[in-house]
Amino acid sequence: MATQAHSLSYAGCNFLRQRLVLSTLSGRPVKIRKIRARDDNPGLRDFEASFIRLLDKITNGSRIEINQTGTTLYYQPGLLYGGSVEHDCSVLRGIGYYLESLLCLAPFMKHPLKVVLRGVTNDQVDPSVDVLKATALPLLKQFGIDGESFELKIVRRGMPPGGGGEVVFSCPVRKILKPIQLTDPGKIKRIRGMAYSVRVSPQMANRIVDSARSILNKFIPDIYIYTDHMKGVNSGKSPGFGLSLVAETTSGTFLSAELASNPQGQGAAVLPEDLGRNCAQLLLEEIYRGGCVDSTNQSLALLLMTLGQQDVSKVLLGPLSPYTIEFLRHLKSFFQIMFKIETKPCGEELKGGDKVLMTCVGIGFSNLSKTLK
After folding, report:
1. What is the pLDDT of residue 3?
2. Structural domain contains residue 95
3. What is the pLDDT of residues 140-170, one digit of tens each?
4. Is residue 90 part of a domain?
5. Which of 275, 330, 282, 274 is nearest to 303 (CA)?
6. Residues in domain RNA 3'-terminal phosphate cyclase (predicted)?
7. Are residues 121 and 95 in contact, defined by beta-carbon separation less than 8 angstroms?
8. Comparing C-alpha atoms, which of 311, 312, 305 is closest to residue 335?
9. Are 62 and 75 within 8 A, CB to CB?
10. CA distance linking residue 360 with residue 182, whole number of Å
């Protein structure tokens, strides 16, 4: 067991997931103090407590201590166990909040993970399940995580504030990850999307599609936006609609953007036409930022590069998001790994914003539970 000397100490509620995920992978205990200590409502929120419960379900022998007010958390990680798990996520955050962390941990379980998550599938804060399915799964495949049992399925949609959605995520286990060389983003060759509507008129989805196409058609002809109108029990508990768009490049890179309507009873009503237009513009902005991994999955790519074999991995990213910058600091604390960061100003061949080339040597992390057959 890790001794007290190796444990890391942090203050504040930010980046809680990053710290707990890296703690679980590195086996180093972590203590987080002053979690919203000066707030009117101090301590951990429901969605964070729910996340800690989920970690407890997929690990074996984790020790979690939370003080009376919930402002201090001590987490001593156990072994990643996996297996079949069901979890009711808090409706305050989307299922994407929980799924992002599961994507980081799933390949290193003892048994292949099959998890059923219930809650909000699409909201305005977290990456939706549609976007993670279209961008994060192909990214994991680049690292050699693939197989028949690798899938993410949306059984029911749930919009905030009621939730009621359900997704099934299953992932095979891997002993080691392949190093990657993603330095050529390629050109955009097609755009795919999903316009969904639940508990509102199915016409909403068609209106979103028309307005999004009105912008994107100027750039590329190969655009197909599916409409998904879920009925009855599959539509969750609250009305809403939204759009997720994914642009695929010639070299197999996926860039995404999404928008959802305001939750029932909160904020002004959004017109589907405006939502479609705004989402198309967000996609164009993401394409301008560019890189081989979109801004949602930057930290996932960097983590899997860190955990790869002791070989050089390179990835070309668009401008680093603040979340990714903090993630790099955490990677240094937990795994003592530093990335070589080179800025690539947008030359003639690289259109769009300035790019960053990230290079690292993997730490040779291997899945201890998976013995060689």
Report:
1. 46
2. no
3. 999 999 988 999 999 999 999 999 999 999 9
4. no
5. 330
6. 10-341
7. yes
8. 305
9. yes
10. 12
Rounded Cα distance between 23 and 29, Å, is 6
Q: How far is CA 366 from the centre of its chain?
A: 22
Q: Which domain holds residue 317?
A: 292-364
3-state helix, strand, coil in the chain (%, to 5): 30, 30, 40
Is 17 found in the same domain as 49?
Answer: yes
What is the predicted pLDDT for the residue at 6?
79
Which uninterrupted H or E stretch holds 60? strand 59-60
The residue from 258, 273, 289 where one domain ends is 289
Question: Do 39 and 71 reside in the same domain of the chain?
Answer: yes
> Residue 222 CA to chain centroid, in angstroms?
27
Q: What is the pLDDT of residue 368?
A: 77
- DSSP element (H, E) containing 283: helix 272-289
Query: Which residue carries 């316009």 as its tokens?
Result: 195
Alpha helices in 311-352 (DSSP H): 322-335
pLDDT tens digits for range 27-71 = 999 999 999 999 999 999 999 999 999 999 999 999 999 999 999
**Three-state SS annotation for 94-137:** EHHHHHHHHHHHHHHCCEEEEEEEEEECCCCCCCCHHHHHHHHH
Q: Are residues 278 and 328 in the same domain?
A: no
Cβ distance 193 to 244 under 8 Å? yes
The list of the chain residues with pLDDT below 50 reads 1-5, 373
Question: How far is 305 from 359, CA to CA, in rounded Å?
Answer: 9
Residues sharing a CB contact under 8 Å with residue 8, sequence separation 6 or more, in sequence order: 19, 23, 28, 29, 30, 31, 333, 334
How many domains does the chain divide into? 3
Whole-angstrom distance, CA of residue 290 vs CA of residue 311? 25
Residue 369 included in any domain: no
Query: What b/e sequence results for 275-300 when a residue is b if at least 16 CB atoms lie within 10 Å of its CB, and e otherwise?
Result: bbbbbbebbbebbebbbbbbbbbbbb
Cross-strand partners of 192: 224, 246
For residue 261, the 8-state DSSP code is P
For residues 91 and 99, give the distance between their C-alpha atoms in angstroms, rounded to a whole number.
14
